[in-house]
Structures are given as structure tokens and as C-alpha cells.
Amino acid sequence: MPLLYVMLLGGLSFGNGFLPFDRDTVDLQPVEVYSPALDKFTHGQTIRRLDRRDLAEFQGRSLGDLLQERSGLFVRQYGAGMLASITMRGTSAGHTALFWNGLPINSPSLGQADLSILPMEGFDEATVHFGSTGALYGTDAIGGAIHLNKRLRFSQGHQVNLQQALGSFGRHNTRMGHAYSNGRFSSRTGIYHNFAQNNFPFINQAKIDTPTERQNHARVAQWGATQDLAWQIAGKSQLSTSIWWNHTDREIQPVMGSNTSDQQQDGNLRWVADYHHFGQLFSWNAKTGLIRDELIFNEASRNLVTQYFMGGEAEGKFGEAWETKSGVRFTLIEGKLSTYAAWENRLELYQSVNFRPGERWGLSLNLRQLVYEGNWAPFTPAISGTYALLQTESHQLDLQSAFSRSFKVPTLNDRFWVPGGIPDLESEKSLSGELGLKHLWTKSDFQWETQVTYFQMKVDNWIIWLPNGSFWSPSNIREVHNSGVESFVKGSKSLGKWQIEAQADYAWNRAINRTNVTENDRSQGKQLPYTPEHKFQVTGRLGRGSLSTYVNTHWVGERFIATDNVSKLSAYQLWNWGGTYAWTAFGKMKGDLGLQINNLFNTDYQVLRLRAMPGRNYQINLTINL
């Protein structure tokens, strides 16, 4: 009966905080397609929205590049344009949930997403939710979650956008787009092509005398198209849909000293449809969609996984102190892989509550239960809160805290791979807590924001693959303790006609394995491989009128190569510079002309052992808006 009640109220949607409830929203004419407030049921939690200028500067590049160079997060990159996976708070790549317009897009077979094949053209908003968020988003969100969204606007008329970039090592990127909107209808269409020969010189450390050679098998070609539509219906309802097709063809860059010539094609189709209704007493929405991922390796191994989604939720506000959201999500997964075929269904129920007992207090309670193929995932509660220690005209100091449980359902490969899969593997689970301070200092021409968070986490039933006779099998065998500090600073000041901005991130992560896998294992008490303890980045900007410039540097600390922590890669620091001139011609034509220099000091470095990375390189960008 409760499930039926939620379905009748909620229609079809997802549990990511999709619905607003604000009486003013019902009466005002909307100017843009409704987008979920990700921070609505997250009092005391850390959410960061990446600057839109950063997204514009990374056009033609990938989400992995953006996060590596503009955040405190570490991205494991297997080469330029090659596989890229993220680690948040010292967890693995499969412990970060990734969403596009509310759809979870981690691969159910691999348990993670390749950030290198997510080009910037597929979204125009990127938000990072730090910390354990399984109660809000479901499986995989042990370390955190990343949300990618497209934003449409009404009443903008016709708009045409052309972008062209040319760069070092055979790079060229082209994007064309058209948008039209009136008071009730909005449409945006885009097509793009990205290409990089990646024939950069590198020092081959796998050969005697470490000669300088040129990379000759790392070409990346990418094509894609997006279509977004939205309709405003009767003032209180909104219908929207988005589709994103992306195809990537890559030569897999070999490790230094190897002559392999592997190739890989990735085809991705993503579609989502939303219906939102904003009522006087409550609001509800309907959402459905699909994700289709195909991977072909060396034209021999073909892996196809399709996910179908439906769900529903209703949200209401009761008095001045209470807000609530109830919902359900259903997922059907079809896997057709090289060694097995599998079907799986998942059902999730979730409940969120906000309580504000006073102006200084804010509390959030989130609950979620997932059932997959008759197996109950760990029940997932989370409670978080914020308290204003100081509130003045120019200063606000908040104390933030959160305690939560999260989980990760075993992947299809973990359970069904032939040979080696274990159907009865348990879900990975985590317990975490965090405490932080957030300070905001504002004046008429000056703004300064600082946030520091300390966290601790324990991840149990961590799945690893081990030799089992003539093949490998997964086991729930590892326990990992994570702790650390995240800090963020952002400031801006006006000096006459000049605008100065600065932003910095620092992350200290300890990810300690507490379990010896075998009798001869020496990994207990050691840092997880390729998990740097320290990561730092800072970006400074200076602008006046139509001219602007930035300088960015990011520093990555030492990374251990293996679980015994005997061998390690050296720390490295990269510097990047860019400048932009905003121009106007013929009255209505506008655009930007930009120059970027990456790896300014031609640093020789490796993110992962024996994976060559490019030295100094250049890129020229031209944007035309009509």
C-alpha cells in the first residue's frame, strides 16, 4: 500500500531532489527549465558547483581533465584521452556516483564511469557533492557524487553558436549549436567533433638511457550530438526531454616499453524525460529514461549494457519548519557481454525530511532502501545539520556536521563473469562522519568564502579480485579506513575597473587498508595504491572590460604503485595559463577569442606508472554567437 500511494502521488521520477516547493514558484512566470536543487535536503553537507567559465575553457576536453585541474579531487589518467577514473576521499573509482540530468550513468557491469569519454559538450553545469551520499542517491555514492546537467531557458529567441579550437599534437575541436525559445517552448541542438592525434614527445623511462620518443598510438576521435526540449504547460507544469549520443574511437596508448596496438570504441546513448507539476499544497514529478553503453575492444569483444529507469516522488512543505520528500525508483538492467548475459531489476524507496527549528538551525534526515533481485542492500540512513555560530551584516560562520551510511551493489561482472563471478557477493558498505566550518565574509566590493571539513570513514566488504586457480574471482575481503581534511577558499574583489578572483582547493586523504589478503601480503596498515595523500590546486583570474586572463596550478603528491607501499611515483606540479578577448562585430555578432598554454614549464610527469603524458602544449579557441 505505501508503494502504491507513492506511485499515485509521484508518477515516474528519480530520487535526486527534483522537486521544489515554494509558493512563490507557482505564481511567477518561469524563465528557465526547472532544475533540481541538489542542496535542498543536505543541511551540513558539502556541495560545490564548478565555475561556468571553467567549463567554457575546457570545451573539447573531458570531465576528467576539468576535475583534475580545477578541483581538489584526484583523477587517475592512463594517458592523454585515455581511461580516467576519480577518487573521492580516498575511495575507489566505483565509489563515486555519477549522474547526467538525474540519470545514474555509472556502468552496472564495470561499476564506474570513464571520465575521459564525457566531453564538456554534453552538459553546461557540473556539481560535486562530497562525502557519503547513498541515502540521497543510491548505490556507488560512498565517496561522493557528481551531477552533470543541461540548462534550458525560455524567451531567448534564436541563438546560433559556433566553436572551433586548434591545438598541439593534432588537436582540433568543432562544435555547432542552435537554440530557440519563446515564453512556452525551448529547444537547443548541438553537434560536435573532437580529435587529437596525441603524437607528443616523451621520455621513455622503460628503455636504457631513457631516450626521447614520440607517442605513435594514442589517437582519439569523438563525435556526438545533443537535443534538449522543454514546454511550459498551463503555468504550473513543465515537460522536458534530453538526448545525448556520443561515440569515441581510441587507440589505446601502450605503457612505456610496450608495442601493443589495442583499439577501443565506446558508444553511449542517454535519454531522459521529465514532467514537473507545481501545486499549492505539494509538488510532484515524473521521470523516465534509458542509458545504453556499448564497448568494443579490438573488434572482437563486444559488451552492451542497457538501463531502463522509472520512478516517482512527491514533495511538500508543512508550516515554516518542515519539508518532506517521498519517492520510489525502479531500474531494469540488461547486460549482453562477451562472456555472459544477465538481467537485473532494482527497486528503491526513499524518504527525506528537512527541519528548521529556528533561524540558526537546519537539520536533514535521509533514508533509503534498495532491493536488487530479491537481495536487500544495506539500509541507508543519513543525518546532517548546520548551525550558525555567527551572523552579522558582513560575516556568517556555520558549524556543519553529517553522519551517514552508504553502499555499493556488486557489479554484473562481480557476480556473473565467466569464469570467476560470484552470484552471492555482498554489497560493500560504509559508515562515515564529518565536521566542518564554513565562513562567508561579504562587503560591497569584496567577497570571501572559506570552508574546512574533517572526515572519517570505514568501508567494509570492499570487493577485490584475487587469483583462484586458473582464473580470478572477487571476494568481500578488504576493510579500509579513510580520514582526511578538505579545504576550499574563494574570493573576489573589485579595484576600479579591474576584477580580481582567486580560488584554491586542498585535500589530505588517508586511505589505509586494514586487511591482509594472503599470508604473504604486506598491505595491512598501508595507503591504497595511486591514492595521493595530498592534492592542491589554485586558480587566479584578472579581468577588465573585454579582456581576462587566468593562471592555474595543481600539485599532486606522491602515489604508491602497489599495496605494499615499496615503490612510488614522484609528486608533480603543473602550471597552465589562458587569456580571452570578448569581441563584438556587425552589431549582433559576438564571441570570444582565447589562447591557452598547458603544462607551461614543460614538466615531465606521470599520473600512473609508465603512462606518458604530454609536455607543453597550446590551444587557440574561437567562439561565435549570433
Would you mind describing this structure in some detail?
This protein has 626 residues and is mainly beta. It has 6 helices and 34 strands. The protein has a 22-stranded antiparallel β-barrel. A 5-stranded mixed beta sheet has the order 1-6-7-4-5, with no helix packed on it. The longest helix has 9 residues, at 2-10.
Write the layout of secondary structure elements.
Layout: H1 2-10, H2 23-27, E1 46-49, H3 52-57, H4 63-70, E2 74-77, E3 84-87, E4 96-100, E5 103-104, E6 125-130, H5 134-137, E7 144-149, E8 157-167, E9 171-181, E10 185-196, E11 201-203, E12 212-214, E13 220-233, E14 237-251, E15 263-278, E16 282-297, E17 301-318, E18 322-336, E19 341-355, E20 361-372, E21 375-376, E22 380-391, E23 395-408, H6 412-416, E24 428-442, E25 446-468, E26 471-495, E27 498-513, E28 534-544, E29 547-556, E30 559-560, E31 568-569, E32 572-585, E33 589-598, E34 617-625
Parallel strand pairs: 4-7
Antiparallel strand pairs: 1-6, 2-3, 4-5, 6-7, 8-9, 8-34, 9-10, 10-13, 11-12, 13-14, 14-15, 15-16, 16-17, 17-18, 18-19, 19-20, 20-21, 20-22, 22-23, 23-24, 24-25, 25-26, 26-27, 27-28, 28-29, 29-32, 30-31, 32-33, 33-34
Short description:
The chain is mainly beta and 626 residues long. Helix content is 6%, strand content 57%.
Major sheet attributes:
22 strands, antiparallel, barrel
Structural class: mainly beta
The name of the CATH superfamily reads TonB-dependent receptor, beta-barrel domain
Q: Could you say what the CATH architecture is?
A: Beta Barrel
Query: CATH topology, anyone?
Result: Maltoporin, Chain A
- Amino- and carboxy-terminal Cα gap: 54 Å
**Helix count, per DSSP?**
6
Radius of gyration: 24 Å
Q: Unreliable segments (pLDDT under 50, ≥5 consecutive)?
A: 1-30
How many domains? The number is 1
